[in-house]
Amino acid sequence: MAKIDEVAKAAGVSISTVSYALSGKRPVAKDTRERIEKAVRELGYSPNAGARMLAGDRTHIFALTEPLRTDTHAPTHMAFVLATAVAARRQGYDILLLTDEEARAGMSRVASSGLVDAILVLDVAPDDPRVPLARAIATPSVFIGVPDDNDGLVCVDLDFETAAAMAVDALADAGHERIALVGQTDIAYRSSNFPPRVRVAAERRAAERSLSLMFRSSGAVMVDPAATRRGVRELVDAGVTGLILHCAQEAHAAALDELAERGLSVPTDISVVAVGSSFDTAALPTAVDTIPLIPQASCDLAVELAMRSLGADRPEPGLHLIPPTYVGHGSLRRPAGPASS
Amino acid sequence: MAKIDEVAKAAGVSISTVSYALSGKRPVAKDTRERIEKAVRELGYSPNAGARMLAGDRTHIFALTEPLRTDTHAPTHMAFVLATAVAARRQGYDILLLTDEEARAGMSRVASSGLVDAILVLDVAPDDPRVPLARAIATPSVFIGVPDDNDGLVCVDLDFETAAAMAVDALADAGHERIALVGQTDIAYRSSNFPPRVRVAAERRAAERSLSLMFRSSGAVMVDPAATRRGVRELVDAGVTGLILHCAQEAHAAALDELAERGLSVPTDISVVAVGSSFDTAALPTAVDTIPLIPQASCDLAVELAMRSLGADRPEPGLHLIPPTYVGHGSLRRPAGPASS
DNA sequence: TTGAAAGCGGTACCAC
DNA sequence: GTGGTACCGCTTTCAA
Questions:
Q1: Is the pTM of this model over 0.70?
Q2: Which tens digit of pLDDT belongs to each residue from B190-225?
Q3: Helix/strand/coil (H, E, C) string of B23-54?
Q4: Interface with B, mutate which of A7, A45, A46 (most B CBs under 10 A)
């Protein structure tokens, strides 16, 4: 726990020079800076966090609120937390965890105590209680996800609507007429924001392209592989030849296993596109085209916007949607020939 | 962001009285205190975190290091993070996340910057790089889990060894002679601390009771339901009549499903005991006796020890093991009659 | 039972 | 290019 005056003495300079050398907010002669850096290294100096918070205008801490519901899909959630932490550290920021019970009181607390510079909101519900809270406090916040009422909020997310439309288009262009969406768990369509966005967008596009779009979920509250397989079976029996998967990894695996067991091969017998998958799709039993949800991309952008909201060029309130990318892996049937074009 | 002097003015007292009224470190007249509390409420006052850290001797923040490996079982991990956060908040503490890439540098950083009062170490590996680090820094740390080399460290955990022995005893007492352990994933026996502890302790006790103990894992890197079922099938075929489950929820479900499909009923045909399960075993397809691992119990104790290591009655370095409890659900065959007693 | 004031360890302004 | 120093907002000693 060396202090700045010890560093100053060791380097034979004043306290302020040490401060400026470290912050870079004022030019410091090369050799002076090197002497200081050497002293810092030898003393294992790291500026006192409390003093820095008090004297400076930054705490170098972001809060991350996450309402860990029991139906939260843990692996996906963890990927976002990790990506956020990594992105924050790259900017010299630490992450303070605000969990459920404390999520609401916690947000007010860290805001009014000046513990954090900004709040990142994870696992956003369509009707999220943190929305009014975010509006009420002075600390800037960035939502990773899009609540229904997002007026004046800074929200980051994959453009799920476009992603869903792209998936439908891909299947339509390949000549499919009866397609289906294998979605998230039933409860996710109420407690989370993006599942309904995908479903609604897919339905709209299917209607525009005059396709029949069926739907099956992948469980009630938790992912249910057996239920997912049953759903896929029903879809296939109903003559579906194109599948959009928007579910957890386990459900993807279950769906593809079911196809394989029924002797249906991709893409010969059935086309498959995965939308918004945040896991490594290479680990799936069958290679499928994907329009991935990349946690790192969302979290990097969220952190960037959080940083910017501390300075002069505040980001525009509104949706900051990340354009989806279609990654082909040959799971689409060849487009229909001239006859149907 | 009201400040303490505003509260003082509003309550018509001095700054120090406000401070003492809030900290309780000095008696304050009842009506004075009430005036202060009223002012605090009306102004939405919350003491400035930086100032408090700087002036006081506590930061009111604990670091939580977690090396989110790709093979980490996310749901279990999340349960521990959540339990830790809740326990910490009950003591007025917040949790700062230190993830992987930064786990090592991060520990040094938060220690030398005085950002946190103590460090909680999660997801402990047998040969954990954070062990030497914890010894090197001044900030006290508490390990939730037991590394091989734990000399001088404060470690909290369920007494897995005793739990494993209890499970073996339960099966032995019920008259079983060929029993088996369905364990974690293969990789967990290298990257995590408790799976080998359970396995070794079970083997030792089985030997002492002259039982044959077979072993099957529940996957390579990730939980693999199919592999688990295959393993259970092999065990049953080998004449095993008593099963100890020490694996993730999905693997429990797979194992029990396999038994059910083979027409084996619990406990008539086979006895089952779950050891160290940290999820809700009531959600399993079959009721089983359990010797649960309760995240809240471990995390509460860890936080308590962390608090104590800041004050006068520092906890003894060493293992602080939580005694296991056997919770019966009728999944054990009735003890053998007099003939074999 | 209460108040005044000296720090805590940085940051950043003002001088030189 | 460098140094002196007045804060930042709280905690806690000392005094009354």
A1: yes
A2: 999 999 999 999 999 999 999 999 999 999 999 999
A3: HCCCCCCHHHHHHHHHHHHHHCCCCCHHHHHH
A4: A46
